[in-house]
Design brief:
184 residues; globular; alpha/beta
Length: 184
């Protein structure tokens, strides 16, 4: 059986049970019980969340929290800092697995930025962070799992009324994409 590790925020927490079910006869799927939230928090906790060095497959993501606009109007993790931290995470995780994959950040409802009282997100920011992270990962030889592309064609179908988290259909679509990536 393959040994799979998924690291990511609440979006990952939403689809991980379905991934576990889809791969139940092929892999043991691990993942932190915690929301891995923003990049610096993930980097800080990697020794707890990825304690072993023999995973067959690791997929990680950060982006929803990093692209939030805070009460001062500034983005939580500026893109240069995000990129530096993603490179550090990638270098650490690459030593722990045969196959390392970065999952792109999923979209939000376009109205989310104007509607949210805090932690406002814009798809323009998510897309620019995804593009930068994808370029970095390709340069480092890391595979990409484009979850953003899976959900973007029908955001209101796949993203719940909170405008950020996935619907059951969105969780299933991401789970199928992740399971297919593990199998490929």
């Amino acid at each position: 059986m393959k040994k799979v590790l998924l690291i990511g925020d609440s979006i990952r927490l939403g689809y991980q049970p379905a991934v576990t079910e889809l791969l139940k006869d092929e892999a043991v799927v691990h993942g932190p019980a915690a929301n891995c939230s923003f990049s610096a928090f993930t980097l800080w906790n990697l020794d707890n969340w990825a304690p072993e060095d023999d995973y067959d497959f690791i997929q990680w993501n950060n982006g929803q929290w990093d692209t939030c606009h805070m009460m001062d109007g500034k983005i939580h993790t500026p893109l240069p800092a995000y990129m530096e931290i993603q490179a550090r995470i990638a270098n650490i995780l690459a030593k722990k697995t045969k196959r390392l994959v970065f999952a792109t950040t999923t979209p939000v409802w376009p109205e989310q930025f104007e509607s949210a009282k805090c932690h406002q997100r814009r798809n323009e920011d998510i897309i620019s962070y995804n593009i930068a992270a994808t370029k970095l990962c390709i340069k480092l030889g890391i595979e990409i799992n484009d979850l953003h592309a899976v959900l973007a064609p029908d955001v209101k179908r796949y993203i719940s009324k909170d405008m950020v988290h996935l619907t059951e259909e969105g969780n299933n679509a991401c789970a199928e994409q992740v399971a297919a990536k593990v199998r490929s």
